Amino acid sequence: MSQTQSDTDEELDVLVIGAGFAGIYQLDRLRSLGYSVKVYEAGSRIGGIWYWNCYPGARVDSDGPMYQFSREDLWKDWEYSERFPDWREVRRYFDYLDEKLDLSKDIRFDARVTSAEFDEARRQWVVRAGDGSTVRATFLVPCTGFGSKPYVPPIPGLDAFRGECHHTGLWPQSGVDLTGKRVGVIGTGASGVQVVQEAARDAAELTVFQRTPNLAFRMGQQTLTPEQQKEIKEGQAAGYAIRTTTFGGFDYDFLPVSALDVTPEERESTYERLWGMGGFTFWLGTFQDVLFDTSANDTAYEFWRKKVWERIDDPAVAEQLAPVVPIHPLGVKRPSLEQNYYEAYNQDNVTLVDLRESPIEEVTATGVRTAAGEVELDVLVLATGFDSVTGGLTAMDIRGTGGITMREKWADGVSAYLGVATAGFPNLLFLYGPQSPSGFCNGPTCAEIQGELVVRMIDDLLRSGRTRVEAEVDAENAWREHVAELVVPSLFDRADSWYMGANIPGKVRQMLNYPGGLPTYLTKWEESAAKDYAGFTIT
Ligand code: N01
Fold this sequence. Notes:
The chain is 31% helix and 16% strand. By secondary structure, the chain is α/β, with parallel strands linked by helices. The protein has a domain at 10-46 and 103-149 and 387-538: FAD/NAD(P)-binding domain (3-Layer(bba) Sandwich), CATH 3.50.50. A hairpin with a 4-residue loop joins strand 5 and strand 6 (134-142). The model is unreliable at 1-7 (pLDDT under 50). The site of 3-acetylpyridine adenine dinucleotide has 27 residues, from helix 5. It holds the Pfam family Pyr_redox_2. One of its GO terms (molecular function) is oxidoreductase activity, acting on paired donors, with incorporation or reduction of molecular oxygen, NAD(P)H as one donor, and incorporation of one atom of oxygen.
């Protein structure tokens, strides 16, 4: 990977922050249109979250064909070996992209952006990075993803632990050998579930500290045969073509029927079929009202619960992992895909500690003490998630026209017109950001589809000789209300999820993702674009 470390104080058309899917899409497309573009990346290689999240078991939760770019010259020569590739293979895919698109020459690695301020006179962002470099750019495009700021809960004594302690999102690049160790995992979100499956196999003893059970679905993992690879290639273009018509940017969508309008037998056979397919079809390919109607949701939950109970030997443990009375509706927290997660709890070396019954009191030098006693540990894994969606943006000291930071502006809640810009921060367009489809949309899909809207906007502006664009306050307030209204008929508010900003104590509770689905989002964008970007002030 080449890198030009000497080019400080340069002037660019666009500075992109982050070299994940969204960032490299911006780099490649804007560069191809003739603009001067650089990416600043905090990590030491491309891949975004796939650089930082190299914990044991880290694996994609989307089918491989959907977890790549849709350009034919890219997909025709690329194959993942598994239906749901692991982090090593995704890294190889990024290396492949790097080779094909010659990306790294325009990426400054180990350059974490720390601050940015808008120079109104020159209509430029002045951006500083932790490596001491400064760059000026007409447009600033943060592509920091929704999970780039790890959340470490303020558990008393955490600093006193003398064993190894790592957050999944800051996992040592050299790896951590869990073999024969006493391992504790706090957190059972997507990251926790994945670590648990590996640690259950390798650790001498594994203790899982669960606050809320993960309603995890069957992954349906497969190592792909040459015949399956051929079949995938044959369907790939058609799959990409329908992504803009589906809620989550996948190649499938909700069934256009209510779970309550079919007979119990039809419902059961439909759930069985979706379950058998594996992946997120049981979530985003299910009856259209499961995420909106409590009675419909109850039918899906009960189907799921029975599937889980069949796999767990001890009914008391089954009740902790899949309670008869749901703690929250199914699918309103991001579900995980699992392979042998539930069987792991049948193993003698695996213990589940239910933190609702026995909360953590403190971390000691030698382990974790809950109300039920102390568990001695060699390795403590914090699978405690992220200051999601906004954290990557507010972690930087970004100052707009009034001198206030984005963190200050959003202290009482986020407003972001079309999920892409916020008033007071001209020429700053964020990808996969708050109130955009982000967390509800497949990552590479949104990197391309939302990414292309931003590319087009920058190109439209610069070609027409206009160099300043700013979201209007009325427009962003209306968008915030629109997002809030979309949540009302849904069940999303019934869980303390990162979707709702509710995973971080003190964070304003509001929907941080656009819950109207990709097609509606795109329609809203096109309505604005058709009126010369109504809702933005452009000069
Ligand atoms: O984080 P999370 P994640 N004491 O916020 C618990 C994506 N992702 O890193 O539910 C004890 O989901 C918390 O408990 P509770 C994916 O979109 C994708 O797992 O708040 N426990 C929860 O169990 C995902 O949704 C992939 O009660 C505490 C856990 O920590 C998103 O990233 C893989 C606690 C955090 O779960 C985030 O997933 C990994 C405390 N004080 C991630 N504080 C793939 O696609 C928090 N918890 C493969």
